[in-house]
What does this fold into?
Amino acid sequence: MRLADSVALRLRSTEYDRWMHNVASTGYCHNPVRLVGESTTFNGATGEVLAEYASRSEPDGITFTRCGNRRATRCPSCSHEYKGDTWHMIMAGAAGGIKDVPETVTQHPMVFLTLTAPSFGAVHTSASVRRRGTCEHGMPRACQCAHEDGDPRLGDAICADCYDYVGHVAWQYHAPELWRRFTIRLRRELARTLGLTQRAAARMVRVQFAKVAEFQRRGVVHFHAIIRLDGVDPVDSYPAPPVFVTTDDLVTAITAAVSKTRVLAAQLPGEKKPRDLRWGVQFEARPIIRHDGLDGALSDRAVAAYIAKYATKATEDLEPTGGGRDHIKRIKSAVRELADLVDPDGPYGLLHRWDRMLGFRGHFSTKSRRYSVTLGSLRGARRAWRLRTLLKKTLPTDDMATDDVLVIGSWAYAGMGWLTDGDRALATEAANAAREWRSERARDRQPRFTERSTS
Ligand SMILES: [Zn+2]
Ligand SMILES: [Zn+2]
Ligand SMILES: [Zn+2]
It folds into this structure.
């Protein structure tokens, strides 16, 4: 059937309104899960039936539920919701005042940290570098092109023969371990900065963080993190550290930990010695304060929004349209070539799984246990809220606690996606309209933060 006919068929159907209502209730998901089945809602205490629901009462006899994919390229609508959750989680830890996290956390020493990878060879950059001369292949040693923003060559190796693709992959593969060692080192350096033993320091101050990974144009991750110092208290979840612990102490400790952290990576096939992996020399640790202020300090809200922006990033974002850049392809093939050479049970044994991620096997966002609320608790809260809304519709006078409600159902998977091309086109159009409406409303409330290029 032609797309126009398939659209027309849905538009003319008597169930169109009901169908569009269902599209909206998936949050305009692009690739929803199709389910068939039924469920009954009981009062758990009395056994009274509160509501009955079956997919056979829906248009086409199908119940749609959102895919929940966090990647914007797979489902812009679901990734938006995930991003919202991450935003709330990161925000709560930096600004408090929402979801059980007290506003007093804004008084704690807090720093916005950016950690980068070292150089693996000269790349095209937006800042032109004054370094003269050419390599043995006759290529310039530094970028002197004065690229405009959006130039597809930005981040590409200037000389692919000189660029250390193996070193790039080895570093990227170990980046999560480098981060883990950094957090351990940071506790040590903090104790030293405060003039305490590690044990004494651990009794009065705790390091909490939320971090996200972001791919740079050159195909290597860097990390953005909010690092906050808390005190130690058996009852209070977010206690303040002792007053003598300052933001300056935190910056001093971070600076020392960044320069001292290293991972001695296992020897690669054909190489004479293990690689000594470290952070790049470009790093940034800026104090976060309650409001935009003097001395280049950042506001809590701006930082949280900036960090949360990266929660939905994936490697797909790296590749401009048109089949991908040669530089990124070279990194992928370096991953595959190495994976073929290494012992599958050895330290690089998992490398073959990560060529799409250019060797990076970490999570895109992580946090320490007590940084803030968990994503799971936000999802739980949203589910409970939806259930309450549903109950309110069926039982207008009921104010029963959601704990008393028991849902018994029997459901089967019936496929993915909207049923026809026409349905998908209508759902996408509705999603775009909803997003436009949301962003218009949000525009005035957005915190502002100017992105700075590192690398
Ligand atoms: Zn979806
Ligand atoms: Zn250039
Ligand atoms: Zn060269």
Confidence is low (pLDDT under 50) at residues 312-316, 318-322, 392-400, 445-455.
